[in-house]
C-alpha cells in the first residue's frame, strides 16, 4: 500500500511514522519466516535421506542377483574370423572352433526387360513357398505390375520372406529382377513361385526348385547353412550367428578358418561381483555420511544441524547398521569382514579389501553367493528393510515428509494471515493519518489567515497615528 505524500500539507512526518509502524508490526513475521526456513530444510533433508536409502536399495538388488557372481569374460583369438559374446548362463571353458562353411541366402534372377515402368500383364496373385513350408501370397489385383511396382510391393511385405531389387546389366534388356531370401540358410530358401491370373508375370517369375529348367527364373546363389566344429563336434546353423551350440555363448561367424582353429575362451569374471560390492559400499557410505552431516552437533559453538536429534535419521541408521552384523554360520565366509568388508568404528563407514574379496570369490563362490544372494542373505534382508523404510504409506520417511509438509503449509498460511492483518491495520493508520494531515493543513491555513489579518490591522492603526 502506498504511503508517500502523507504529511506534505501539514508538514508532519506522517509517512515516516507510518513506515516505522509497519516495520514494528512486521517484526513478528520474522519468527514465522525463520520457522519456514527450518521446516523447508527438514523437508529437503528427508528427501536426501530417501534418495540415499533408495541408492542402497538399488545397489543391494545387484548383490542379490546370481548372475552377478556367475559372470564370465569371453574372448576369441581371431576376431576377424569369429567374434563371441556371453550371457550370465555361460560356463567357464575353452573351445576350438573350425568353420568350414558360412551360411548364405539364396538369390534368384529373372530375365531382363527393356522397360521397368510398364505393366507386365494385368493383376495376378503371386505365391511364394519356402523350404520350411511357409507360404505367403502377394495380391496384385487391380494394381501396378511393373518391375518398379513389384519390387516396392515385395519389400513392403516382410511376411513373404523375400527381398527384391533391380539389377541393370547394361544389355538391350537391362532391367533384371533379383529376389533374395530374407535370411540365410536352406530353411529360408524359395522352393517355388507361382502366379495365378497373370500369364505374363508367371512366365517371368515362375519357379520350381524341383524342376528349375521348366522356368526362366534362375538361381544365382544357392542357400547354404553354416558348418563348423566345436571341439570336434559337428554343428550346422541356418545363420552365421550361432546361439545354441554352447550354452551362454553367441558365436558370430565372419569367414572360414584357414589352417588353425579359432580359440574361444570363457573365464570367470570377478570384476562384476567386486563392482557390485563396491557400488553397495559406496551407496551405504554416502547414506551414512548424509545422516552424520544432517544430524551433527557442534559442541564448540552450539550449532545444530537440520536433523539433530531427529528420531527418523537415528532409526534408519540403526536398522542399516544392524543388517551389517549379519553372519552366515558354518561357512568360511561367515561375515562381511570375512569378505574383506570392514566397518570404521568411529565413522561407521565401510571399506573394501578387493584382494580379500576376490580371493573369497575364487575359493568359496557358492558361500559368497549364499551370503549375498541367498534366500535369507544380505541382499534379501536389505530389500525387506529398505522397502519398509521407503513405504509410501506407512514408511518412516514418508510419514516424516508428510509431517514436515503440513508444517510448511501451516506456516505459509500463518504468514499470509499475519501479512493480511498488518496490511489491514496499516490501511486504518493511513486513513487516520490522511484525516490528521487534512485537519492540520486546514488549521495551518486558518492560522496563516488570522495572522495576515492581524498584521493588516496593526499596519492600519500605525498609519492613523
Give a verbal description of the structure:
The protein has 9 helices and 20 strands. It is an alpha+beta fold. Strands 1-16-3-12-13 form a 5-stranded antiparallel β-sheet, with no helix packed on it. The chain has a 4-stranded antiparallel β-sheet with strand order 7-8-4-11, covered by helices on one side. α1 (14-63) runs antiparallel to α9. The radius of gyration is 44 Å and the shape is flat. The relative contact order is 0.16.
- Number of helical regions: 9
Query: Structural class, from secondary structure content?
Result: alpha+beta
> In which order are the strands of the major sheet placed?
1-16-3-12-13
Distance between the termini: 59 Å
Average pLDDT, rounded to a whole number, is 88
Taking the sheet with the most strands, its summary is: 5 strands, antiparallel
- The oligomerization state is single chain
Q: What is the overall shape?
A: flat
The secondary-structure element order is HEEEEEEHEEEHEEEEEEEHEEHEEHHHH
Strand portion: 15-25%
Poorly predicted sequence stretches spanning 5 or more consecutive residues: none
C-alpha-based Rg, rounded? 44 Å
Please report the total strand number as a whole number.
Answer: 20
- Helicity, in percent? 40-55%
